[in-house]
Amino acid sequence: MNDSMITMDSNYTNLTTSEEDFQRRSLEAIIIGSIFLLAIILCSILGNISVIVAVWTYPKLYEQKASIFIVNLSITDLCNAIFVMIWTCCALITDGWPFGIMWCRFQCAFNYWLIIVSMQTLAWISVDRYHSIAHPLQYADYLTTKKIMMMLSFSWILGLIFAFVPVFLDWVHYDYWEVVCAINWHYQQDMAVFYVVIAFIVCFLVPAVIMVGCYSCIAYAANKCARRIEACVVPRSQSIASDSNSTGTSQTTKLIQSNTKVIKSLIIVVAVFFVCMTPFCVTKLLKVVFYNNIVPGWLNAFSTWVQFLSSASNPFIYGIFRKDFRMAFRRQIRFLNCGLFNVELSSEST
């Protein structure tokens, strides 16, 4: 492999991880890592395209305003695969960064931008679900499509601002062990620490508090509603003359059960996101507080791979826990099978 790395002209923003010599990755590690990363990329691209197509083609999903948030999250994950993961895979295979300074800066910006948008989107989803459960009668008027688009636009603009600050301040370098272009936290350290604190509070802590608060309120409201229905079902079932009321109660129960399944799937999405992002955040925090070399090389690579894994996991979560998505995915598979069958018939006829 080529040991020479491109060096940038500006102060301290070189594409090398450090000026010191370090042990490079073995050929076996490159091959195994590349195969694993390619699998994540394929799952991310195919899975998130399937989610987007499912929402736009399946009426039950298309009619739900909450699906706009899911589409936005899928677009974010798809962009992560295209603008971040693919270039990381190329850097891993070539054992260096062959794409130059400008794309290194853009890859770093896209990486942080998409992470922030994902976090903000998950927070908006929790707000949406809270209003659908706690205020069902006012939900349609409160969260309109226009308001949802404004919320998501705010997320993209906020992420854009925080992601490109390190680029404009020339903090970006290629981290050999992370296999991505990242921020050098010890260049202009005082400013870097200030940036980290503000970004952590605005982009991560606030959305996390919103999610915990909303889902806690949802759990409380759902349990309270379930107790009310249970109290109503017993006396009504004892009366033969209350068949219509029992039917209404049954329909309400089914609606709550359906909402509960949707909320469970979203909570799992949030949990998986936090699990995948924890190594990434912890390693960054260690680098800010201490120094770059405190984190072992394998842990840097592991944090990057697990971060990427979050982009590939959501379509599987939807498919496992949501019946409407399973139906939509099955329609896509049937459509593809019919298309392949028709192609075979036409080729045989010619």
Automatic annotation (TrEMBL):
Q: Which InterPro entries match?
A: GPCR_Rhodpsn, GPCR_Rhodpsn_7TM
Record gene name: LOC106171058
Q: Which residues cross the membrane?
A: 29-56, 68-94, 109-127, 148-172, 192-218, 266-286, 298-321
Q: Where in the cell is it found?
A: Cell membrane
Q: Which domain of life is it from?
A: Eukaryota
List the Gene Ontology MF annotations in alphabetical order.
G protein-coupled receptor activity
Query: Taxonomic lineage per UniProt?
Result: Eukaryota, Metazoa, Spiralia, Lophotrochozoa, Brachiopoda
Q: How does it sit in the membrane?
A: Multi-pass membrane protein
| PANTHER family linked | G PROTEIN-COUPLED RECEPTOR (PTHR22752)
Q: What keywords appear on the UniProt entry? A: Cell membrane, G-protein coupled receptor, Membrane, Receptor, Transducer, Transmembrane, Transmembrane helix
G-protein coupled receptors family 1 profile domain ranges (all copies): 47-318
Q: Which family does it belong to?
A: Belongs to the G-protein coupled receptor 1 family.
Example GO CC term: the record gives: plasma membrane
Record organism: Lingula anatina
Q: What is this protein identified as? A: 5-hydroxytryptamine receptor 4
